[in-house]
Amino acid sequence: MLAGTGSDVGKSILATALCRIFKQDGYHPAPFKAQNMALNSFATPEGLEIGRAQAVQAEAAGIPCHTDMNPLLLKPQSDHTSQVVLNGKPIGNKNAYDYWRKRGERYEVKGERIDYRMEVCKAFDRLAVKYNPIVMEGAGSISEINLRDTDLVNLPMARHAKADVILVGDIDRGGVFASVYGSVALQSSEDQKLIKGIIINKFRGDMRLFDEGRRMLEDICGMPVLGVVPYYKDIHIEEEDSVALAQKSFERQQGKVNVAVVMLRHLSNYTDFNALEQDPRLHLFYTNNVDDIQKADIIILPGTKSTLHDLYELRRNGCAQAIIKAHREGATVLGICGGYQMMGIEVCDPDHVEGDIERLPGLGLLPITTTMSGEKVIRQVSCEYGTGYEIHMGETQPFGDAKPRPLLHLSDGREDGYIVDNKCMGTYLHGILDNQSFADFLLQPFTDKLAEADKSFDYQAFKEEQYDKLADHVRRHIDMKRLYQILTDD
User: What is the model's pTM?
Assistant: First the structure.
């Protein structure tokens, strides 16, 4: 288990690296995180939902993702509530206080008694039968002692799995000695014995300057520092949540096709755009600035956890009008999932699935109407451009007497999305932009601006290269021989 001194210390990335390293070394690894909190999710081959980070780690391990890798997923809906997804299926919305106080207990959902702790332990046990080693990931800090009794994901999970725990500290944010030592010292004597080593992550500068610090940490904590991993900028791995958006570009660039992703308050699955970010033919940026929206060549309305509230905000802040005007003046507009719903004539929620708003007019760019429903659609699909996946609530139909004009034809015989022309379209498919043929189709109207128009971008090959680069980077800076000794020591 990779446990952390805090959130965003690099546990997910290191778990991804170890999944690829173990695979390279001839093992059959799998990732596991008992509980994840993120809007960025993924559909498994069985049509169930897990956190995106575990799907990425499974890809690095070279195996299909499965709900047993992330049996409990929380998708925030507001500051106080989250949708709870258990074993890939939503079981309802929970108040944060009730959930965090009761998650270690049996909890009633729709008349059924659910024991979260038992569920996540059973998922781990099923996974451990099929794979070895299991690369477990903790959540946040392991020293939140006020939540210790209800903790499902950190050291209580490690005890169940009999896992060797490696503590990850982030030196970039400062205070690494206090955070590492304090994280160890605040554990019970039983749990301290589970922690077998330390990794210092995100180091900047001359590594030799930390030699003395490394020895001091080993002395005060009584365990080895297995490695000091430098900060990197030239390796691109899909991030777990929107914290990474702070490092994304927010400005247009000259000389390329500029793609503006509209920043929504409840934006989800922003990894839909990772392939375009790496495509040398274009520049992708995130914005809710009306001037930048109107100057973009392509505008993408992304997915959202709250379509009606984000649509209301787009109308309030002027972005809706800016998108409509930009399209009128020649910009392409593409909507994905909730963004697709917003592009229609209206979005209706008569049963208050999302909240109090029963109906809002959409942007009117597509002749469609969407009605929200309580049933979530989750499935992987393939179409003429490649593969993608659906995770959405709501049904979309042509509005009035409008004729269907599907954007995509799915391999199971269904049709998806709507296209007016090659500059106005929408789809429910997340991941469609990972397929270079669809990216080529999206860029086709702008070939006169492309310096490298004849060079398509293979995102799948790019991702495989990045996993190998990450594994090489971590191998160079972690004592893998010592780590293997820890894992095989009875």
Answer: 0.82
